[in-house]
Specification:
Layout (H helix, E strand, L loop, with lengths): L5 E8 L9 E8 L2 E6 L6 H8 L7 E5 L4 E4 L10 H6 L3 H10 L14 H14 L4 E5 L7 H12 L4 E5 L3 H7 E8 L2 E6 L2 H47 L9 H13 L1 H25 L23 E3 L2 E6 L2 E5 L2 E3 L4 E5 L6 H8 L10 E4 L5 H12 L3 H13 L4 H6 L5 H13 L5 E5 L7 H13 L3 E5 L3 H7 L2 E7 L6 E6 L1
Parallel strand pairs: 3-7, 3-8, 5-6, 6-7, 12-19, 14-17, 14-18, 15-16, 16-17
Antiparallel strand pairs: 1-2, 1-4, 8-9, 10-13, 11-12, 18-19
Helix pairs in contact: 3-4, 4-5, 7-9, 11-14, 12-14
């Protein structure tokens, strides 16, 4: 049986609301195996996956895709179409998938109460069970804990078809992918190897182009100076050989000028100047044709402020009911103005529920709380974008500067109808920054964000003076930013019971 493949042939695509094309003359050929899709938030990674799986149609060109394709979206709002079929299936393959991903029969009825990590596991389990020829996965490690991440890695390694992988997880891309597609609208560049190898190659290409551009521009400037010098000499020759201003009877002066003209020096000088002008024009065309990609300034400063209050939070011990016969036992909790807290625990243990419960108990004015939730639904994304678009010119410009320094292109964002989840997080963070918050609370902040943005956010949070509470499965991210850990663990003696420990 021949192996499947994916072909993009001179593909163009532009959204109706956009002025500039997202993709232009894109041609790639991808064999079976995993290919990483890399780019900034809003660059078109999700659009590329939808074109590849037939969910979008190109404006021009052709996409030749395998017969059976499956797309796994970033969002986990909706239950996968074939989730019920998988849970009810009695085949050996279905049993293996359900056991591997830890799926439970009752998940079908309680989808709204599942954690986003549990939903993500369900989503990818269904996709693999369908055994597609092409599998496009958008951010598979979003929301999942370390155990689920390892399960995903092992499961995706066994996939035999054409795989397209969008991820902010560098290790995932480096381990699984044989090549990466770097999207920089309107172009797509394929580089061999995982993310790290591809980024190294991209950096070397950029440096080589910059060196070539500098050399050509230097050569152009040198030729331009020489052409100007020769033009001055030629003008001097013409001035000396002009009979204008010579007395009518000064035959000796006229004879000398005629002799100089007959020598041909002015003809040679003019020919040399024309040749030099030709070389100058050619060199100018050469350096102007070298496409040096614009480098955008990245990095932000979060203008938080330290509250003068002794405590931002003080709540007694209590038990939170999580639903579905689960509960979270919490000790007395306090948060001081400069505390930096990591909230950790397995999927479904109540981390997001605890944050939502704590918010109204904070001893902080609401306008000085910056809260970015784990997931933001489509309607909220549109509302946030509309709120930003309606801002007056000056505050809008300030917000867009922040968004730009987090790696997204403001003009594309403002033209869109629906920002990507990563762009929405950047907008929420920017809106919160202008209020100089006393506390920042972020639930899985690295979800949906591209790698350069994560690095910018990490650096900004490290320098921010206000209080910080972060939920994340990204241990290196937490290690750099937090000093205290609130860890949720299972109570092995009581089913469905979790306990919060302050370490």
């Amino acid at each position: 049986m021949p192996k499947p493949f994916l072909i993009f042939q001179q593909v163009n695509f532009t959204y109706e609301t956009s002025i500039e094309p997202l993709f232009q003359d894109v041609s790639v050929h991808l064999p079976s195996g995993w290919s990483g899709i890399v780019g900034a938030n809003g660059a078109g990674k999700t659009t590329f996956l939808k074109l590849a799986t037939g969910l979008l149609t190109p404006d021009a060109g052709m996409v030749q895709t395998p017969e059976k394709s499956v797309y796994c979206p970033q969002r986990t709002d909706d239950r996968p179409e074939h989730f019920a079929a998988l849970l009810h299936a009695a085949s050996k393959a279905a049993a293996l998938i359900k056991g591997q991903f830890g799926l439970e029969a009752e998940w079908l009825d309680r989808w709204p109460t599942l954690s986003h990590g549990e939903r993500k596991r369900s989503q990818i389990a269904v996709a693999l069970w369908l055994e597609p020829d092409l599998l496009a996965i958008d951010e598979p490690t979003n929301h999942v804990d370390a155990e689920a991440r390892d399960i995903l890695m092992q499961a995706l390694r066994t996939f035999q078809g054409v795989g397209l992988l969008v991820s902010h997880d560098r290790e995932f891309l480096d381990t699984l992918c044989r090549q990466c597609l770097f999207i920089e609208p309107p172009r797509v560049t394929v580089r061999p190897g995982g993310y790290s190898k591809g980024m190294a190659a991209a950096t070397e290409e950029r440096n080589a182009i910059s060196r070539q551009y500098a050399l050509k521009k230097q050569s152009y400037k040198k030729l331009k100076r020489e052409a100007a010098r020769r033009r001055d000499l030629t003008n001097q020759y013409h001035s000396r050989r002009s009979k204008k201003g010579i007395l009518k009877h000064d035959h000796d002066a006229k004879a000398r000028i005629d002799a100089a003209r007959l020598s041909g020096k002015d003809i040679v000088g003019g020919r040399l100047l024309r040749q030099l002008d030709g070389r100058l024009a050619h060199t100018q065309d050469e350096f102007e044709c070298i496409q040096v990609k614009k480098q955008y300034t990245l990095g932000i400063w979060l203008p938080g402020s330290v509250s003068k209050r002794d405590l931002l939070l003080k709540v007694p011990s209590r038990t939170l009911l999580l639903g579905d016969h689960k509960q979270l036992v919490c000790p007395r909790l306090t948060v001081r103005p400069n505390d930096r807290i990591a909230l950790t625990g397995p999927n479904g243990a109540g981390k997001s529920a605890l944050l939502r419960w704590l918010l109204p108990h904070l001893n902080v004015p609401p306008e000085q709380i910056t809260y970015v939730p784990q997931e933001i639904d489509v309607r909220q994304c549109r509302d946030i974008l509309a709120k930003v678009q309606a801002l007056p010119h000056e505050p809008l410009g300030h917000l867009m500067t922040i968004v730009s320094r987090l790696g997204s292109r403001p003009h594309r964002l403002l033209e869109s109808r629906e920002p990507s989840p990563g762009e929405t997080r950047k907008l929420m963070l920017a809106l919160g920054m202008v209020r100089k918050p006393h506390i920042i609370i972020m639930d899985e902040p690295t979800n949906h964000m591209d790698l350069p943005s994560i690095e910018c956010l990490e650096a900004a949070l490290a320098d921010c003076p206000c209080g910080l509470v972060i939920v994340s499965h990204d241990r290196p991210f937490l290690d750099k930013l937090t000093r205290t850990e609130w860890r949720i663990v299972r109570n092995e003696r009581v089913e469905g019971c979790f306990v919060l420990k302050v370490l």
